[in-house]
Design brief:
Order of helices and strands: EEHHEEEHEH
Oligomer: single chain
Protein name: N-acetyltransferase domain-containing protein
Organism: Methylobacterium gregans
Strand content: 25-35%
Radius of gyration: 15 Å
InterPro entries: Acyl_CoA_acyltransferase, Bact_Acetyltransf, GNAT_dom
Distance between the termini: 41 Å
Keywords: Acyltransferase, Transferase
GO molecular function: acyltransferase activity, transferring groups other than amino-acyl groups
CATH topology: Aminopeptidase
CATH superfamily: Gcn5-related N-acetyltransferase (GNAT)
Shape: globular
Strand order of the largest sheet: 1-2-3-4-5-6
Number of domains: 1
Amino acid sequence: MSNRYGLEIRSAAPADAAGLAALLDSCGIAIAPRALAERIETLRQDRGVALLALAWGPPSGLIVLHWHATLVDAHPVATVSTLAVATDERRQGIGRLLLKAGAQAARAAGCGVLRLDAGPDPEAASLRGFCAATGFTDIAARYERPLRKRS
């Protein structure tokens, strides 16, 4: 998709699952590579995109977006469900580049707004600062409940 300063941003493929699983694991999200490969393939066939940033080895970052129509918005809404940058590669502009590429993909899909959920965890404070610096405004709280019993 793009190449800037040796950093390539492109669509993730199931073959990238092992590297992405390691990246996500370093960010506290454990997903088996096989399951991740299946989810990437499903996402590629659905209304969304997974973009990864590659420098000289394993993936440096990942952004996953989904879009959907709503009754109150004139255009589809894009939601960032995952934004991860390798711990040792943060504060180098990779998150900004991923967000820019994600926004371009959302615009190409006809979306009118981009949403990102910062969440309540302690690391969310730095994400909130990133969101403010990249043009997001804090608009609402999020509530959720499980749809299946936890085992």
